[in-house]
Amino acid sequence: SQELEQSPQSLIVQEGKNLTINCTSSKTLYGLYWYKQKYGEGLIFLMMLQKGGEEKSHEKITAKLDEKKQQSSLHITASQPSHAGIYLCGAFMIYNQGGKLIFGQGTELSVKP
Amino acid sequence: GAVVSQHPSWVICKSGTSVKIECRSLDFQATTMFWYRQFPKQSLMLMATSNEGSKATYEQGVEKDKFLINHASLTLSTLTVTSAHPEDSSFYICSARVLFSGIPIYNEQFFGPGTRLTVL
Asked: Cβ contacts (< 8 Å) between A41 and chain B: which residues?
């Protein structure tokens, strides 16, 4: 089973519209990362959230981590074609053998001009 | 931010041959590097955690003898896909963790640009 659930898996929006991508974990999140990727390329770091209730913004992208630290949302305001790509949430999970960064399934965003 | 490079960025090989992929941290030392695999339209799946000077820790379902990982120095980890087959074709991405703090969760992880492997 997927430890990090992202929704939706794909999204098509008209340019100028707002959108939200969600990332949910069954465990407490100690560090939640949002990345953007163009398929076949590396990851672009967007934001990292650590504290419950934390909210960060960069240009037209805002990410929040809920108080219980088990869900995060990424909100894009007035979407543009340049926002198109795959958005991945990543979470630092603690295991007996240490910690590791794992990813949700990804959300493929298309923005229609 | 810190830079991680991968080489090659793209490789095509014949079935049965071995392919080595290098991951380098260019301006920092990384005690821990990670190897991920990504299939088309899918997310990144962690394959193994590579610690400098010790054996790699593989995720469940990843064949150790198939995917050999060597982390010989604080700036270089290599992934060798042995006896590659078409099903090994994938996008491989490495990442390196910068040790800012003794607490792992506060250490940022930087990703390489990825290596596309195509096995004919």
From this structure: 113-114
